[in-house]
Amino acid sequence: MSLVITIILAAGAGKRIGGPKALLAWPAVLPDDVAPPRRPEHRPAPKAKDRPLSIAHAEARLAAESKQALIVTRGAFIPALFGYVRPGIDLLASDAHDDLGAAGSLAFAVSRLPRADRI
């Protein structure tokens, strides 16, 4: 089995979308949200808590092929994301200049990568 690591770039300010990319809310999906109940008496489960999109991406990659997901964000957003961290999800606080865009975040992450077969 190969060691796959995913890098999630979420350090952007999100000026065009109204807020930081790392903290965009992503709706939770439950089985009841996907298919209608089979029996009328079936009560839908309570909605799960929405989570940040960066965390949803990390969870999806861990469920698919990755052993580890690195979320590159700004230090100011770490406290808001910390409660969602679980084994396999790591937060990196980038100090790359905003003018560098995604390339700055990627360079920051690459310098901190553990050994892997695929990234």
Explained architecture:
- There is one protein chain.
- Residues 33-46 have low confidence and may be disordered.
- By secondary structure, the chain is an alpha/beta fold.
- The protein has helices at 31-34, 53-64, 78-82, 101-110; strands spanning 5-9, 25-26, 51-52, 68-74, 89-94.
- The chain contains four helices and five strands, in the order E-E-H-E-H-E-H-E-H.
- The strands form two sheets. It has a three-stranded parallel sheet with strand order 1-4-5, with helices on both faces.
Topology:
Blueprint: E1 5-9, E2 25-26, H1 31-34, E3 51-52, H2 53-64, E4 68-74, H3 78-82, E5 89-94, H4 101-110
Parallel strand pairs: 1-4, 4-5
Antiparallel strand pairs: 2-3
What descriptive keywords fit this protein?
119 residues, alpha/beta, globular
Number of helices: 4
Biggest sheet, open or closed, and with what strands and sense? Answer: 3 strands, parallel
What is the helical fraction, as a range of percent?
A: 25-40%
**How many E-type strands?**
5
CA-to-CA gap between the ends? Answer: 14 Å
Quick one: overall form?
globular
Strand order of the largest sheet: 1-4-5
Order of helices and strands: EEHEHEHEH
C-alpha-based Rg, rounded = 17 Å
- The averaged pLDDT comes out at 82
Uncertain stretches of 5 or more adjacent residues? 33-46
Strand composition percent: 15-25%
* Main structural class: alpha/beta
Provide a quick synopsis of the model.
This protein has 119 residues and is α/β, with parallel strands linked by helices.
